[in-house]
Amino acid sequence: MEVNEQIAIDHGLKKEEYNKICDLLNRTPNLTELGIFSAMWNEHCSYKSSRIHLKKLNTKGKKVIQGPGENAGVIDIEDDDAIVFKIESHNHPSFIEPYQGAATGVGGIMRDVFTMGARPIANLNSIHFGSPQHPKTKNLLRGVVKGIGGYGNCMGIPTVGGQTSFDDSYNGNILVNAMTLGLVNKNKIFYSKAAGINKPVIYVGSKTGRDGIHGASMASAIFDDKIEEKKPTVQVGDPFTEKLLLEACLELMAGKSIISIQDMGAAGLTSSSIEMASKGNLGIELNLNKVPCREEKMTPYEIMLSESQERMLIVLENGKENEAKKIFDKWNLDFAVIGKTTDTKNIELFFDNKKVAQIPINTLAENAPMYDRKWKKTKLPQKINFKKDDFKKLKITEVLKKILSLPNISNKEWIWQQYDHTVMGDTIQKPGSDSGVVRVHGTNKAVATSVDSSAIYCYAHPLTGGKQVVCESWRNLISCGSRPIAITNCLNFGNPEKEKNMGEFVECVEGINEASKFLDYPVVSGNVSFYNETKDKGIKPTPAIGGVGLIKNYKKMVTMNLKKKDNLILVIGKTEGHIEQSSFARNILNEKKGPPPEINLFNEKNNGETLLKLIDNGLISSAHDVSLGGIITAVSKMAIKGKKGFKLDRLKVLINKFDYYFGEDQGRYIIEIERTNLEKVQKVLKENSVHYDELGLVTENEIIIDKEPILHIDDLIKSNNSWLEEFMEK
Amino acid sequence: MKSSVIIFPGSNCDRDMDVALKKFGFKNQMVWHNDPEIPKSDLIVLPGGFSYGDYLRCGSIAAKSKIIKSVVEFANSGGLVLGICNGFQILTETGLLPGILQQNKYQKFICKNVYVRVNDKENKYFKNIKKEILELHIAHNEGNYFCSNDELKSLNDNNQIAVTYCNKDGKEADDFNPNGTLKNIAGIFNKNKNILGMMPHPERMIDKYLSSNDGNFFFENLFENLK
What we know:
The structure holds two protein chains of two kinds. By secondary structure, chain A is of the alpha+beta class.
């Protein structure tokens, strides 16, 4: 087939991009070459709209071993141990085929981690669905949860945390972001940069089939009425083979034969081979007849663009082929020498003894298009003048029960009970906590991790929202007594060719960067997903932040469940009663306008650091950060988890009690302490100039608020637990 | 005391079991599914996981594997064989234990803490166990035990129902049946009670920082009984 402009456009390239290809090659590309360009130059692989902004991110820090640019980021957790971690999106495929889309998202991110030599020790996910009333929501949720579980459970990696939200803006574009943490010896990390000429290039893992061809291009396009036709572009997962691949790779990595290794993820063999050669400033030559194929008569075009899962590309030291092959034979996996590294700085492909493609590597990698797209700033919305007199009709207990049962606040046990969260025997905080915590096997250390996003705040004001998500991640790690180290981000946005969407992206990134710098909480890996848009309707900006922190002695870990009757409950951080964009304003008052709560980075850091001191001194019985639903929701969740009640004292402040209890001011934590520790705690808080209020105390099981009717903790448990179960099972 | 944990491709609780056995004093060795024979052992464990992917019926391929012949011989000569989760499924597929494990009633994978009651102490596994209601953990998609009426009668007559799901006070009822299993069965013995298959994972509950440490009672006791 002769390539022309129309064929290029059908491949998702723009007219100017096609012309640029012809210029760079000094000729018209053939179909295989065009396919390779389209795979490398799409948004998903090239980051062409985002690169210019991502460059500004704060990526350095004392604990950073590897920042963005590799398969995953790596951080130092002392004693030669390092954590490899990353988050990645699989939004588009999951909407088309929820089970396989989600499953292969989980499979892909785990490969990114074990490619670097790390054994995965924890999975997390951030999943977002349309309105519960939308006819597709239930099936999508069911399929995605099954897919995540199906893959992670079979691999034997615990899923220890996550986040689920529902919002109309995801009706046509759900979000599925998967995150994995792996543990590695910091002297034995593997990278993707190839080195040396004439080194054998090895293909291992599953055979190549026709699944997933053009998956990355599909993920770089908006959806229309014909999305169902794109089902064949969704890859099919085989977690069993991935488990074998994991064990085989780690076995090979224990030796010294690997020069570089790269998983075949988006754009399969194309991007993996080009990335390795590009980083090593080398060329690469592949004989496509040697690639193990699952189907007959596959063409070079199909072989290069297939996104079949569970495959890896390895550059070996010369003469190590047999030693390596033995390991893959043991695990019953394909192993083939398919080419070698060269000094030509070209990718050259051979098929049936003919050269079928030759492209200079730099045109595919560093010379790929980069755009500085136009973008529009979002103004800070004006404050709302709430009619406080109307609040008098409301009862706190009634509002509380309603808020606890909101889809975005209700208990998500229905979801995480389908994920194996205890395999590997080191999970010491399960899903449903502020962070998932896993021990570093055989040591006194533990790693805390959480994933967060706040699309509501980001939509109202992207700059503030971007800061807020980073702060919330930081708080979740602090509340369990871990020292936050670094983050990974999954930036889910609409169409970057629209100024408003691009502006949301730019300002969220700016917010993330600002908070990340101030908190010394660098970004070490991430992924961008644009074009989350269907028929002109885009999603709310949804950057998801995955954080990782270290607990040096896991015996000092703190949990959020209330522990003991008569213990005191305090809130750390100043409460001003910001209710715009709060769950209370949006769901009870039905007011969706106004600015999100302000972020004060100085207080954020100071409050967090001070809480860490209190925890380190053993003064804290339980702790929980204040987020959606404000103080009273936070205390209720602690009570629900601990199956205890609480009594709130009369307010000593001059704020309306609804503003006080339901406001979503930032930088706050609820702490439970023993009475006898009160003075010591007060002293530390005062010394560090941290504002605090005493809220009340823990009771056996009664919920006592002012003169309102007394509730039993079971009432709150019922409000919090029933929504999702009923939604899914009835 | 020597134990062997068999690793099938797709096993994923093999390390956890190794850690647990060693913690309670066993000299444990790992045995690969293609190994010609099993080293001399006092106990063989078939661990949890997804042997050979379990894309067919769970445990069915493992039941035809090379190593399983040695396991069957060992069991038939009175050796102690313990199958947890996928290991239990494999034991029913080999016919060493009666009945089958079907998909959970609500067709979902279930991962949570449960209570089980020890029903029979006249055996090497539970003799002298210090606690009879144990808080353990399940994580499976196919743990819904089923067998014929004749088989059930025989299980009852010979006290082969080893552990049953219950509440924390030991009460058995449908409310505490997590997966629709027959008669709340969580684990059974063969007639000679040298083979035990059970769905709950004691190896995941072996220290107080995990969500329960009742697995300790199981392993400590097993080790003492084998001494």
